[in-house]
Amino acid sequence: MELLNALMVLMNFVIVPALTYGSQLALGALGVTLVYGILRFSNFAHGDGMALGTTAVILFTWWFQSLGISLGPVPTALLALPFGIAAAAALMLGTDRVVYRFYRTQKAKPVILVIVSMGVMFIYNGITRFIIGPDDQNFADGARFLFTVREFRDWSGLDEGFGIRSTQALTVVTAVIVVAALFWFLNRTRTGKSMRAFSDNEDLALLSGINPEKVVAVTWLLVAALATIAGTLYGLDKSFKPFTYFQLLLPIFAAAIVGGLGSPLGAIAGGFIIAFSEVTVTYAWKKVLEYALPEALAPEGLMQLMSTEYKFAVSFMILVVVLLFKPTGLFKGKAV
Amino acid sequence: MGGENPYQDDRGNRDRSITADGAGASVDVTRRDGPVAVSPGGPFLEGRAMTGGYGKSGPDILHGCTIAVDRGEIAVIVGPNGAGKSTAMKALFGMLDLREGKVTLDGLDITALTPQARVRAGMGFVPQTHNIFPTMTVEENLEMGAFIRTDDYRGTMEQVYDLFPILKDKRRQNAGELSGGQRQQVAVGRALMTQPKVLMLDEPTAGVSPIVMDELFDRIIEVARTGLPVLMVEQNARQALEIADKGYVLVQGANAHTGTGKGLLADAEVRKSFLGG
Ligand SMILES: Nc1ncnc2c1ncn2[C@@H]1O[C@H](COP(=O)(O)OP(=O)(O)OP(=O)(O)O)[C@@H](O)[C@H]1O
Ligand SMILES: [Mg+2]
């Protein structure tokens, strides 16, 4: 019984939140890894791209709410999502046309594009603040919980229980669907395969008649969709604040690198590794241990390895360790 | 690298967590196709008096070099390392900017076309290096070869498997995990999948054992017999010239000797300087 209670606490405070956060990171890291694989540079504008896409979703959500349109228990943001994706796609294709394309024509070294993406980051950053301001925005509506801790406790008769917020369920379900669709696209469709071919060997892709500009355009479309979905899910689950999205860049890159840059599977694994590490290291284990250990061994302190302010340090640590011992990431990134 | 263009200076960056290296395009991928002019007469595929080099400001590698292949022929380019054989092939395929000269295909001047447009015009090319998609399966490599086709290409794939039976056994394996000789077969197979009207092979027998080499030559002759013009670069000059209808000896980016395969083999000077006596 005690162990079961420990497990319930663990579910409520570690497993469910980390699964949710991991799904959000995985979606973000997939976008980063796609740009890296196809365009060959680390896109520093990704976090702010997420923020801008989410901004569009929020504006549409508010508009729908003002019109009285709602999806009942499901957040209205889900209805606004396609419109947000369209806006983000237009933005990223426009950026590519105006900015990145110039550097492709120059056959610029990828490291130049990295710096360029930082410039793009600042611009996106500014636009987001200009449109929606730097403050917290709440746009979640619909049902709050799938089931609450209390409901679960009453149902199971245990001392402890766990609840699942509807945004958490939504995040995980959406992530599974999106990832399945992405993998199907990359591995089964002609366009998806041509993207992998382009990532493998650009020259040979040309020699097979693949149009490189089309591959690049499809990549930005996918990245826009992934970024907007990740950003919206994160915003629904936590809250939307532009600066937070900029900060998300670190765990997202950590996830992509830990998994192996350029490897979609790695991005997903990396997302969950980073999320679980962050949550477990910054969680106060006192309650779980009280249930799990015999009374004599019950801990005095909070049993928290690091305070939550240091959660970014966790991504950094994992990043450093992976780069030291397995620089290509867990799933062999980019076979050269 | 770098040279004049500051955008091509990576300032010593070797950090793979920031940029992906290798496999980048060697041509400007944003280029658009130029006009195609009619240019009747002449061989099926011809690069006439080609002069050019790599990049916008690189030195000329080719100096008025002419290469051609006609219907039903095998043409072979031989020459010392660094003579510009691969460069001539790339020039024919539009992978470097010509400063002078032109490329014609089937009575059309295609000098201004991009490589991907030349594929659609009917050219197939197997480069000397990086000629497969390593993280894709053998079958996906062949599918990518058929990328431009909208009809059912399974028949062609069966033909390729008949030509190279080993590929059929390995079709679910990543091409990057094959042996050198098997990779060459994937590379040739990929080019055949477009059903090209002319096939260009840059050292298809590089790194394969003598037996496989003979086999590959036999296959190439087999392909050529179907009427497909084949233009190839070969290090095994003697063997290649024996099966060649037309031979080119390139030296320092220029035509040194041109003739029939048999004629070049009989030429005392060619034998002395290129065939080792
Ligand atoms: N991508 C490139 N950029 C700049 N110079 C190049 C490039 N590729 C080849 N060269 C130069 O062009 C010249 C001719 O090279 P090329 O590859 O055409 O020779 P080759 O005749 O094919 O030799 P091999 O028999 O060794 O394959 C060489 O001097 C080489 O240094
Ligand atoms: Mg060569």
Task: Give an overview of the whole structure.
Chain B: This is ABC transporter ATP-binding protein. Chain B: GO terms for molecular function: ATP binding; ATP hydrolysis activity; branched-chain amino acid transmembrane transporter activity. Chain B: Residues 1-44 are annotated as: Disordered. The complex is a heterodimer of chains A (336) and B (277). Chain A is mostly helical. Chain A has a single domain (2-138, 165-325), classed as ABC transporter involved in vitamin B12 uptake, BtuC (Orthogonal Bundle). Chain A is 73% helix and 1% strand. Chain A is built from 13 helices and two strands. A two-stranded antiparallel ribbon of chain A has the order 1-2. In chain A, helix 3 runs antiparallel to helix 4. The longest helix of chain A is centred in the N-terminal third of the chain and has 38 residues, at 2-39. Chain A is globular, with a radius of gyration of 21 Å. Chain B has 277 residues and is an alpha/beta fold. Chain B has a domain at 26-122 and 200-208 and 232-277: P-loop containing nucleotide triphosphate hydrolases (Rossmann fold). Chain B has ten helices and eleven strands. Chain B has helices at residues 85-92, 115-120, 138-145, 154-163, 165-169, 180-193, 210-225, 237-243, 261-266, 268-274; strands spanning 37-38, 45-53, 60-69, 74-78, 98-105, 108-109, 123-126, 198-202, 230-233, 246-251, 254-259. In chain B, the strands form two sheets. Chain B has a six-stranded mixed β-sheet, sandwiched between helices. A five-stranded antiparallel β-sheet of chain B has the order 1-6-5-2-3, covered by helices on one side. In chain B, helix 3 runs parallel beside helix 6 (180-193). The longest helix of chain B has 16 residues, at 210-225. The model of chain B has no long low-confidence stretch (mean pLDDT 89). Chains A and B meet through helix 3, helix 4, helix 7, helix 8 and helix 9 of A and helix 2 and helix 3 of B. Adenosine-5'-triphosphate is lined by residues 26, 54, 58, 61, 79, 81-87, 128 of chain B.
